[in-house]
TrEMBL record:
Component of the Nup107-160 subcomplex of the nuclear pore complex (NPC). The Nup107-160 subcomplex includes NUP160, NUP133, NUP107, NUP98, NUP85, NUP43, NUP37, SEH1 and SEC13. One of its GO terms (biological process) is protein transport. Keywords: Cell cycle, Cell division, Centromere, Chromosome, Chromosome partition, Kinetochore, Mitosis, mRNA transport, Nuclear pore complex, Nucleus, Protein transport, Repeat, Translocation, Transport, WD repeat. Component of the Nup107-160 subcomplex of the nuclear pore complex (NPC). The Nup107-160 subcomplex is required for the assembly of a functional NPC. The Nup107-160 subcomplex is also required for normal kinetochore microtubule attachment, mitotic progression and chromosome segregation. The keyword Lipoprotein does not apply. Gene3D superfamilies: YVTN repeat-like/Quinoprotein amine dehydrogenase. GO terms for cellular component: kinetochore; nuclear pore outer ring. It is found in: Chromosome, Centromere, Kinetochore; Nucleus, Nuclear pore complex. This is Nucleoporin Nup37. It comes from Melopsittacus undulatus (Budgerigar).
């Protein structure tokens, strides 16, 4: 948990495996600590974090592993369920993973004897992203290279199926818009679907390819951000289907875009994992240049803390944490 100045990140956590994906829970879990999950080649590890930025009694950062779940295959994406509670008796941990065998796995645990998982079959190609319904957590949406977005119930039954025109890269479900799904496609189109009528209701265009990642801003549901080519792009959905703002950032290609959970003007992007280092950039819409630049050895994944301007990236047997200004 030491300060790590060599890679200019604030904190690191050592992991037993290469970290392909890392995800803070975006939901209140009833505990002062934040839940974090990370996935490697065989396992998903669920732990808690607490930072000196939120608790003066913490020296730097405290990290504790709650449980390691055997996964048996590489973890490609993780989504947290809003039903996860640490203050319940017994506690409940629930999350879903996407794996390289094109299956989703729903895990439910009380951190003691009850550890269940269900497998959802249906996608015929690589799954790029997944998300739980943010209010009740009774459904999971996923997008895939098979040109579909699918919505599942917790038994693994397919409740909705949207045919896309190219690989689905990102899927988002906003807590203020529980009946809409945002789906971003590699061809540069972002569509919103009405889950009641199961029709597309709005689309946004990047005008460039490949779109690799998009996100729906938690703090302002009219804002959408994405990375395509080497640029970041931002839309205001009330104004135009074309980006309101865009800027070239990563010399190679941009890989991930994530809005901060605490500030509608703060977001992070990562470059494509290079042979050695992955670049992390934190941007503020009020500033022409990135406000923070970091590097992680072969970094992978990107996630923001629920209540702090702090983000994490996975890497080679490590998770790296950066703290930015608001």
């Amino acid at each position: 948990m030491k300060q790590d100045s060599t890679r200019n990140c604030a904190y690191t956590v050592d992991c037993e495996d290469y970290v392909h994906v890392v995800k803070f829970s975006p939901f209140e879990s009833g505990d002062a600590c934040s839940l974090i999950a990370y996935g490697g080649n065989n396992y998903v590890v669920v732990g808690t974090c607490k930072f000196q930025e939120e608790d003066a009694e913490v020296e730097g950062m405290q990290y504790k592993t709650l449980r390691t779940f055997h996964h048996g295959i590489r973890v490609d994406a993780i989504a947290w369920s809003p039903e996860t509670r640490l203050d319940a008796l017994p506690p409940q941990i629930r999350f879903c993973t996407a794996a390289s065998d094109r299956k989703l796995r729903l895990y439910t645990s009380d951190l003691q004897d009850k550890n269940e998982f269900k497998t959802f079959d249906g996608h015929s190609d690589y799954i790029n992203d997944l998300v739980f319904a943010p209010k009740e957590g009774q459904e999971v949406a996923s997008v895939s290279d098979d040109h579909t977005c699918r919505v599942w119930d917790l038994e693994g039954n397919e409740k909705a199926h949207f045919v896309l025109r190219s690989p689905g890269m990102s899927v988002c479900w906003h807590p203020e818009e529980p009946f809409k799904l945002m789906v971003a496609e590699k061809n540069g189109t972002i569509r919103f679907y009405d889950l009641v009528t199961q029709q597309a209701i709005l689309s946004l265009e990047c005008e460039q390819k490949p779109l690799m990642s998009a996100d729906w801003c938690l703090k302002n549901n009219l804002k959408i951000g994405a990375v395509a080519g080497s640029d970041w792009l931002i839309w205001d959905v009330t104004r135009s289907s074309y980006p309101q703002d865009k800027r070239p950032i990563h010399v190679d290609r941009a890989r991930l875009f994530r809005w901060s959970q605490v500030n509608e003007n703060l977001f992070a992007t990562t470059g494509y994992p290079g042979k050695t280092n992955t670049q992390l950039l934190i941007h503020h819409l009020g500033h022409p240049q990135p406000i923070l630049t970091g590097t992680a050895a072969v970094g992978s994944g990107l996630t923001w803390h629920r209540t702090l301007p702090l983000c994490a990236v996975g890497g080679d047997h490590k998770i790296f944490f950066w703290v930015s200004e608001m």
